[in-house]
Predict the structure.
Amino acid sequence: MDKTKKYIPALSFAWLTPLYDLLMRIGMQEKAFKRRLVDQADIQPGQRLLDLGCGTGTLTILIKQLHPGAEVVGLDGDAKILAIARSKAAKAGVEIVLEHGLASQLPYPDGSFDCVLTSLMIHHLTTTDKRTAMAEVYRVLRPGGEFHIADFGPPRGVYARLVSALIRGLERATENLKGLLPDMLRQAGFEGVEETAYYTTVFGMLVLMCGRKPGG
């Protein structure tokens, strides 16, 4: 396998997957930023949404709980983490669709979704795959559809700069840490791109942003 195309699981190492939810709760202000991400998407009844890189399904389940009238789909490239997501969804009693697939080749027709959300997935992708994933999201969005992102951003403060060095070594986060994601979204065709919120976390600076596909 080409190492540049190697799939990076949550927390970088597969053996850490069972600890993912715990570390998100204690280190990432998870409840706060995921609720803010859902709120800024302004989801309406009857809309179809994709949680891209859904991981253990925390965001996917939250979307459905807050907006039971929406159709919610979660997609992830890690079969093991999807098994955890399915178990959590069953326990929560929500009806969501969880599917296996990659951001660089979304298994959906053009214009399939009103909104795509993603949380802490983009930094796992190579530069090429970031651009491909953004193009794929643009493709599967309906005209006027929105893309909402929560991921690492440029460090602010001494602590964040120190942590960013570790993230850069473990992940493919160079574009995140240089603040290049908004420009990459614009290059993919999104308009109205803006950063909407910032969170200082144990693992570095988290930034929320969004962009809209023209039309609609």
In short: Residues 79-92 form the longest helix (14 residues). DSSP finds eight helices and seven strands in the chain. Strands lie at 48-52, 71-76, 97-100, 113-119, 141-152, 191-201, 204-212. Residues 17 and 195 are 29 Å apart (CA to CA).
